[in-house]
Amino acid sequence: MAQFVKPYNDDPFVGNLATPVSTSSFTRSFLSNLPAYRSGLSPLLRGLEIGMTHGYFLVGPFYKLGPLRNSDVALISGLFSSIGLIIILAACLAIYGVVSFNEDDNTDSLQTSRGWKQFTSGWLVGSIGGASFAYILISNIVFLQTSGLNLIK
């Protein structure tokens, strides 16, 4: 095992270990294609893409595991619960941006106060859009199954 795990760049004073996973080209290319690290994206588009993903996956747990899961309003309450959590998380993102970024002289536009505000607004819009899209899909699952798109068997 010692031949696979060694200090990063052969420097034992760096607090990072070079493992086959952390130094592989697959890991580097996968991480560089995530919206947070992808070059050429504006902070608004980064937030929109990240928000769509998070909003899409928030409706399901509230719908299936929430306190109203056995009622007729389980799906709409799951959507509203997701939107409530999204608003709370957007407020947390805004607070983080206010206390973390106070100057606008960074090369990465996401690391500035203006860029973080754009990221937060994109995240809010994307999250609500992703949650709404999940709601529309779940509420029309019977139609999707009968129209030949068998999503759940």
From TrEMBL:
<dbReference type="InterPro" id="IPR022980">
    <property type="entry name" value="PSI_suXI"/>
</dbReference>
<keyword id="KW-0472">Membrane</keyword>
<feature type="binding site">
    <location>
        <position position="38"/>
    </location>
    <ligand>
        <name>chlorophyll a 1</name>
    </ligand>
</feature>
<feature type="binding site">
    <location>
        <position position="56"/>
    </location>
    <ligand>
        <name>chlorophyll a 3</name>
    </ligand>
</feature>
<dbReference type="GO" id="GO:0042651">
    <property type="term" value="C:thylakoid membrane"/>
</dbReference>
<feature type="transmembrane region" description="Helical">
    <location>
        <begin position="119"/>
        <end position="144"/>
    </location>
</feature>
<feature type="transmembrane region" description="Helical">
    <location>
        <begin position="73"/>
        <end position="99"/>
    </location>
</feature>
<keyword id="KW-0602">Photosynthesis</keyword>
<keyword id="KW-0934">Plastid</keyword>
<keyword id="KW-0812">Transmembrane</keyword>
<dbReference type="GO" id="GO:0009538">
    <property type="term" value="C:photosystem I reaction center"/>
</dbReference>
<dbReference type="InterPro" id="IPR003757">
    <property type="entry name" value="PSI_PsaL"/>
</dbReference>
<dbReference type="InterPro" id="IPR036592">
    <property type="entry name" value="PSI_PsaL_sf"/>
</dbReference>
<protein>
    <recommendedName>
        <fullName>Photosystem I reaction center subunit XI</fullName>
    </recommendedName>
</protein>
<comment type="similarity">
    <text>Belongs to the PsaL family.</text>
</comment>
<keyword id="KW-0603">Photosystem I</keyword>
<keyword id="KW-1133">Transmembrane helix</keyword>
<dbReference type="GO" id="GO:0015979">
    <property type="term" value="P:photosynthesis"/>
</dbReference>
<feature type="binding site">
    <location>
        <position position="56"/>
    </location>
    <ligand>
        <name>chlorophyll a 2</name>
    </ligand>
</feature>
<feature type="binding site">
    <location>
        <position position="147"/>
    </location>
    <ligand>
        <name>chlorophyll a 3</name>
    </ligand>
</feature>
<dbReference type="Pfam" id="PF02605">
    <property type="entry name" value="PsaL"/>
</dbReference>
<feature type="domain" description="Photosystem I PsaL reaction centre subunit XI">
    <location>
        <begin position="5"/>
        <end position="141"/>
    </location>
</feature>
<keyword id="KW-0793">Thylakoid</keyword>
<feature type="binding site">
    <location>
        <position position="49"/>
    </location>
    <ligand>
        <name>chlorophyll a 1</name>
    </ligand>
</feature>
